[in-house]
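Q: I have 495 residues here and want to know how they pack in 3D. Can you give me a structure?
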Amino acid sequence: MILPSQTRVGAFLSSDKTITKGVEKENLRANSFAEISDKSYPKSLGSHHFNNYVTLDYSEPHLELITPTFENNDDLYNFLSQLHFYVQQNLDGDYLWNYSMPPIFKEDLITLPKAGVTNKSKLAYLYRLGLRNRYGDKMQSTAGIHFNISFSETYLKNLAEEKNQFYLGVARNFLRLFPIALRLTGCSPVTHCSFLKGRDLHVEQIGENNCYLPKATSLRVSRLGYYSEEQEKNFIDFNSLDGYLDIMREYINKPNKKFSNIPSSAPYYQQVNTGTIQMESELYNHIRPKAKQPNLRQFIQLENSGIDYLEIRSIDLNPFSDIGVSANDLLFWEAFTFYCAICESPEINAIEAEIIKENIRRASERGQDCNLITSYEDAKSEASIKTITNEFLNTLEQVLNKSQINENFDEMIVELKRRNEKPLSERVIEEILACDGIINFVKTKSLPIEIEIDSELQELFMQESLESLKKFDDHLSKDKIGFDEFLKNFRGETK
């Protein structure tokens, strides 16, 4: 296990200790029969193209709730809770499915958002169509949480470390430690059997319609879930920003034989291009470096201004929290990333890359009871994931006590130690058995929440919905070129 550097800890303690966080939370909408909803994006939420707080991910029933960034975790959690409450009031009889694997799956219920009349909306539709043609609707219909995090400039200044190298180092350590996070937060060991049709994976069945891996933490992170075989062939090591951009450039521009038979030219566009990925958002890394320049695609932003924050992607919805993520979950992801930032982070070589991939596979598919490879020099050196996680939590507790960045970390550590003794994924399996199936279990965890309403935030969400409709109307007349030329220009931006 990697250990904190006293130099890096000291640099943080002498900084302003500011850590900024934001959340993107996905939920599928389900109907009263626990099927994926066949209803369109609610008109009462405005235009999903321009609503800054509520948009669509892959399909019409696949909602994404987005928060601004906050320094204070309580403020972040309150905003997300209020937004969840607002959305559930506008679902026309549906409810938010509080689990990462989808409800009863019927392909004909998955409707893609319409292309619309603008070039950007046509591109978004084409991208989604490409995802359907490449991977199918099932893979795209899992749901989870993205946790966005950045550190203060004073910390980077104290470290005397260039920001790109800093964030890439954090990303490398994140990959090294990610199996621990899977044990502590993975919550999707079971899926409805309708999700598995046509998929050749050695799962077991419990009950009539429930399929699982008995010791799994997260089917969503496993090879069964949000997984691309083509991308898995290469490991992104985050050793340099130029290297990362080069891989993205190659992935986007170099034709991939597997996708070459899908039409990508006029007039029968079925995908954006024939590359391994169509665009940056198709890169299925567990963590991604991001920039925050407005109105530019992510590749150009990173190339122009470098990394501004990290997006942690592979986080399961927590069905034991009524909004899919608990306050302690948010504290954990902050503390976990902080730990990654205060440890030295050497570059990842080819041997370590294979070990990291193997450890993540083990943790997702057998993380309730497995060994992890502990030495990057000796792949035969192993230890129990439970023991490794306990050591990590003890070290993390010491560092957090020293940093004093949040008094609530004590409670969080206590809960995480309980989770290490009995992972959330194990609890999920037990309760699914007690409820006579995954459908009954998730329905009980997806009840409408009751909170103390913040009238100002509810008014903010309502105004944003109205404003998004105005923005959509204003946008309709701004295209100056046809879609063919627009797409050609878009493809050329990463050459």
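Q: Anything worth noting?
A: The chain has one domain: 6-492. The chain has a mean pLDDT of 93.
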